[in-house]
C-alpha cells in the first residue's frame, strides 16, 4: 500500500468506510505526508495511518530485515500491539487497548503482511500462529482469499496470504477449503497464452466471469504461484515464455506472468499508471513489484532493465510517498542482489530508517545526487502528475459516493499496464 502503491488494498478498505466520506472529502487534496494528528509512537512515517498503518509498518520491518538491520523495539511492539485477540489485523487501530469487535475492519492483506514481517524477525510464534489460524478460518471455498473476510477471492489477497503461510512454515498446498487449495484459486485468475493479456493474471473475474490482464495482480500472482512472499530473493534463471494450452501448472503460470511483465516493461523500463488523471505516467510502485516478481521467477538479469529505471527515477517518488515506498525499493534491490545502500547513489536503508522511531533524522548522513537535484526531480514528478495524489483520488471517490464494488473493480482496471 504505498500505501501499497499508496495503496490498492487501502482503497478497498476505504470503500467499506463509505460512511466516513464527509470527513475525507472535506479536503479534496490532502498531502499524504501531512498528518492531521501526531503519528502514533513506534509507527513508521507521519502520514495518516488509517488505511495503511499495519501494511507500511510490515513492509518497513521486512525491508530492514533483508539487510540485517534490527528495527527499534517500539516499532515491532507497535505492530504486535495492533493484533486483535482472534489473531487478525486491521489496517490501523487507533486505540489498541480497546478490544476488537464486529465493527473492527480486519483484513487479510494487513494480517498476511504482518505475519511475513514478524516471521522474518523471529520470536513472534504466538502472534504469527494466531494470525495464520485466523487466515485459515476465513479461506474461501475456492481456496483463495479476498481483501475482507468473506469477500470474493482475488489474486493480490490470495498471493499475499500464500506468502504469509510459507513464511510461517506452512505448506500452502495443504491449506484447503472445500477440497480447493490457494493455488487452485490463483490459477483460476491466470489468462491463457492465446489471447489478449497472454499469460497475465487478472485481479478478479468481471461480472460475466471474464478475465482482464492486470499488471499489479500479475506481479503478485507470480510470487504467489512460486510460493514466495514480499521479500523474495533472486531465483534461478528460468524460461519465461507463454506457450501451450490447457491449465498450466503453478510454475508455468509464474513463467507466463513473468513473460507478460517482461513485455510490459520492455520499451520504457517501467509500468504505466492507470490512475485517473495520470495518463502515460510511470507507476513506480508497480514497477518495483514487477522487479521482485521478475527476479524471483527468472533471476536478477531478467529484472535488470526495470531495476535500472528505478535506480535512475524512483528516489524522488519514495521521498514523497514515505516508508512503504522506500521499503518497496529495498525489496526490489534485495530481489536482484543489488546494494540498497547505493541505489542509484542513494542509501535507501538510511532513508527508510529516517522515517521511523528511534533514529533522529538530523543525525543521519543522506547520500543522493544533491539535494537541489532531488528537489528538481520531485517537482518534475509533481508537475507531470498534475499534482494528483492518492488522497485526492480517495476523496474524489468518496465524494462521488462510489461503493466497494466499483473501487475493487477499479483496482483491477487501474493496475493494468
UniProtKB/TrEMBL annotation:
Record bears the keyword RNA-binding: no
Stretches with biased composition (Low complexity): 359-371
MF terms in GO: catalytic activity
Keyword match Repeat: yes
Residue intervals passing through the bilayer: 389-408
Keywords: Membrane, Repeat, Signal, Transmembrane, Transmembrane helix
One Pfam match: Prenyltrans
InterPro entries to which the protein is assigned, alphabetical: Prenyltrans, Terpenoid_cyclase/PrenylTrfase
Domain Prenyltransferase alpha-alpha toroid: 57-168
Region Disordered, residue ranges: 354-383
Extent of the signal sequence: 1-25
The name this protein goes by in its record: Prenyltransferase alpha-alpha toroid domain-containing protein
Upper lineage: Bacteria, Bacillati, Actinomycetota, Actinomycetes, Kitasatosporales
Amino acid at each position: 500500500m504505498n500505501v501499497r502503491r499508496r495503496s490498492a488494498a487501502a482503497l478497498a478498505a476505504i470503500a467499506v468506510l463509505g460512511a466516513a466520506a464527509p470527513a475525507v472529502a472535506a479536503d479534496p487534496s490532502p498531502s499524504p505526508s501531512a498528518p492531521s494528528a501526531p503519528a502514533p509512537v513506534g509507527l513508521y512515517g507521519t502520514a495518516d495511518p488509517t488505511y495503511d498503518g499495519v501494511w507500511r509498518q510490515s513492509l518497513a520491518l521486512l525491508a530492514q530485515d533483508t539487510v540485517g538491520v534490527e528495527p527499534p523495539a517500539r516499532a515491532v511492539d507497535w505492530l504486535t500491539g495492533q493484533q486483535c485477540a482472534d489473531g487478525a489485523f486491521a489496517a490501523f487501530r487507533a486505540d489498541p487497548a480497546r478490544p476488537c469487535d464486529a465493527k473492527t475492519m480486519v483484513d487479510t492483506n494487513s494480517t498476511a503482511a504482518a505475519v511475513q514481517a514478524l516471521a522474518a524477525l523471529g520470536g513472534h510464534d504466538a502472534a504469527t500462529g494466531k494470525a495464520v489460524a485466523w487466515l485459515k478460518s476465513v479461506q474461501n471455498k475456492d481456496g483463495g482469499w479476498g481483501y475482507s473476510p468473506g469477500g470474493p477471492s482475488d489474486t493480490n489477497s490470495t498471493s499475499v496470504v500464500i506468502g504469509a503461510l510459507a513464511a510461517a512454515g506452512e505448506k500452502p498446498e495443504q491449506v484447503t477449503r472445500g477440497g480447493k487449495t490457494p493455488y487452485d484459486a490463483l490459477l483460476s485468475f491466470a489468462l491463457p497464452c492465446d489471447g489478449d493479456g497472454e499469460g497475465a493474471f487478472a485481479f478478479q473475474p468481471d461480472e460475466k466471469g471474464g478475465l482482464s490482464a492486470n499488471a499489479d495482480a500479475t506481479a503478485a500472482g507470480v510470487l504467489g504461484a512460486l510460493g514466495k512472499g514480499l521479500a523474495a530473493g533472486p531465483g534461478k534463471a528460468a524460461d519465461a515464455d507463454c506457450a501451450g494450452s490447457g491449465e498450466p501448472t503453478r510454475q508455468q503460470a509464474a513463467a507466463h506472468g513473468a513473460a507478460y511483465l517482461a513485455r510490459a516493461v520492455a520499451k520504457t523500463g517501467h509500468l504505466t499508471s492507470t490512475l485517473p488523471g495520470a495518463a502515460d505516467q510511470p507507476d513506480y510502485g508497480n514497477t518495483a513489484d514487477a522487479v521482485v516478481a521478475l527476479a524471483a521467477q527468472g533471476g536478477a538479469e531478467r529484472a535488470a532493465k526495470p531495476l535500472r529505471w528505478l535506480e535512475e527515477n524512483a528516489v524522488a517518488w519514495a521521498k514523497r510517498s514515505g516508508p512503504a515506498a522506500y521499503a518497496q525499493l529495498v525489496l526490489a534491490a534485495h530481489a536482484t542482489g543489488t546494494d540498497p545502500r547505493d541505489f542509484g547513489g542513494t542509501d535507501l536503508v538510511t532513508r527508510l530508517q529516517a522515517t521511523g522511531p528511534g533514529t533522529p533524522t538530523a543525525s543521519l548522513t543522506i547520500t543522493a545526487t544533491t539535494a537541489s537535484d532531488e528537489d528538481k526531480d520531485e517537482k518534475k514528478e509533481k508537475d507531470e502528475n498534475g499534482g494528483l495524489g492518492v488522497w485526492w483520488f480517495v476523496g474524489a471517490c468518496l465524494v462521488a459516493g462510489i461503493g466497494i464494488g466499483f473501487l475493487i473493480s477499479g483496482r483491477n482496471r487501474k493496475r493494468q499496464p
